[in-house]
Amino acid sequence: xxxxxxxxxxxxxxxxxxxxxxxxxxxxxxxxxxxxxxxxxxxxxxxxxxxxxxxxxxxxxxxxxxxxxxxxxxxxxxxxxxxxxxxxxxxxxxxxxxxxxxxxxxxxxxxxxxxxxxxxxxxxxxxxxxxxxxxxxxxxxxxxxxxxxxxxxxxxxxxxxxxxxxxxxxxxxxxxxxxxxxxxxxxxxxxxxxxxxxxxxxxxxxxxxxxxxxxxxxxxxxxxxxxxxxxxxxxxxxxxxxxxxxxxxxxxxxxxxxxxxxxxxxxxxxxxxxxxxxxxxxxxxxxxxxxxxxxxxxxxxxxx
Length: 304
Ligand SMILES: NC(=O)c1ccc[n+]([C@@H]2O[C@H](COP(=O)([O-])OP(=O)(O)OC[C@H]3O[C@@H](n4cnc5c(N)ncnc54)[C@H](OP(=O)(O)O)[C@@H]3O)[C@@H](O)[C@H]2O)c1
Fold this sequence. Notes:
The chain has 304 residues and is of the alpha/beta class. The chain has helices at residues 27-39, 55-67, 91-105, 124-136, 150-157, 177-180, 199-205, 232-245, 249-258, 273-280, 289-298; strands at residues 2-4, 11-13, 15-18, 44-46, 75-80, 82-83, 86-87, 110-115, 140-146, 166-170, 209-213, 265-268. The strands form three sheets. An eight-stranded parallel β-barrel has the order 3-4-5-8-9-10-11-12, surrounded by four helices. Strands 1-2 form a two-stranded antiparallel sheet. A two-stranded antiparallel sheet has the order 6-7.
């Protein structure tokens, strides 16, 4: 199943294959992951210059070359801006990063370039110059950000000629700060803390596609919630709906993300072809409102 990304008119799969973990595979296994993903309808690929120190992009390139996949059958996105110990949105760094990415992926262009994590020292004029140069040279077609709040996006957007297309943000049933404060408006509780200045509403208002990263994880670095005793109720609820819909737990988790009317993409990190096939079934499940809220509450979220 496909969706239009941002206001670009580009149609990409609602589930995206994230390649953060691809460097750990040999080329033959990477070929299996990519071939399986394409067969399952997943054509939107997410990279970053730092994944595997660049080796994830190289492994992907070698596998794609061996499989003989045409460039136009893939939508390629990569990210830049993270350096060792700091973040760097300087014009120079963005331009150099893109050249490195294109070389490692052996392609003339990226469909999407995403700024990976906010640079506190960002000079939006420089980013705008870099984007404009990349667009004019044909090296990048569309641009986006990751892990940014509304005001960071608004600041950058005010310097750009075209709308930002995506914002990549962490989201899973066990990591929902972007929803929590919206159901706890004006409450004196922890869930009511506004951590992103209303990023879901901002993205919906401005037709920016939210790309949900790490859909199976708890908080950054805290691991999977599947099999975690602290998330027993959540896992039981997910399994119940998996049985009801005749799909895997993984498919229900992704269906929960895809059910949100903001029309988000889910970026999955599995490098296991069997699991990817199971996850892809998510697009066949349309959770009801009570089911969606049941999963949300089962993660420990309390409705006012
Ligand atoms: N913008 C950002 O700051 C940012 C940060 C992190 C990630 N990302 C992007 O998001 C993508 C996904 O991140 P992620 O890999 O952390 O996400 P994920 O899809 O939540 O996690 C996948 C990992 O969990 C393992 N896993 C084990 N049991 C699983 C189960 N029952 N269900 C699902 N997965 C299971 C997978 O192993 P198998 O391989 O055996 O399936 C794989 O290693 C990355 O590849 C990257 O593209 C972006």
